[in-house]
Amino acid sequence: MRASRAPIGGVLPVFTALTAHDTALFGPNLAIDLIGQLAGRGWAFAPGALDIELVEALRAETVAMSQAGALAQARIGRGAALSRDRTIRKTQIAWLDGVTPAQRAFLDGAERLRLEINRALFAGLFEFEAHFAAYPVGGFYARHLDAFTAPSRAASAAAGLGKRAERSRIVSMVTYLNTGWTPADGGQLAVWEGYEQDERGRPALDRLDGVAPAALLEPRAGSIVLMMSEQIPHEVRPAASPRYAIAGWWRVNASVGGVIDPGR
Questions:
Q1: Which of the residues 143, 172, 246, 259 has the least number of beta carbons within 10 Å of its own beta carbon?
Q2: Cα separation of 238 and 89, whole Å?
Q3: Measuring CA to CA, which residue among 37, 42, 45, 76 is closest to residue 231?
């Protein structure tokens, strides 16, 4: 077992509710429902799905890192195209590394969910990566996709999960850590289902201007969103209060010559 991170500000959040023998994020019926939503429309939402003790421990870690200046300005793009364009994304992040009990419980639960998705949808999901995300007052993330390759033209998410070269992020998960959140706090997640495609077969994000989203989801504590990373455009509306979440992605192994495709 890896050593625990040194306390931030003298206090390390304590989490003891889940043991090594109980690593499910939520019950099997909810997992089945989420996977069914994901396969049917490309995204899924479960309000208040996570154990509140786990949510509070993860939130405490995020707040402590933010107050300690331990979060980095989030970037957009990949490889040589990485940038910190604050007109597109205004948030700070820190990658989960599993060194605290709450992080281990969350990552173990994500692994259980990966196995359930693979079993139900034959998805071939290979690994999970996730980061804490802290949005300041006014923080936002403009409309975007979570993946960088063209989506499948298959008729459904379940049919489009086959492994292809150059594919990486396949299914996204967002977990909200905001206790006492109200509509006046803003920060909703806007999700689009239908869209026109551009010449590369990707959702034409600029053609969604003026198109109402399929849903506006409140980022309340313990709520979970799943999305097909290549297929579902979404955006974070400006937050009127500090907003905390965990954003994660299950990936396929787009390896060449036995070298695993790098994350992050």
A1: 259
A2: 10
A3: 42
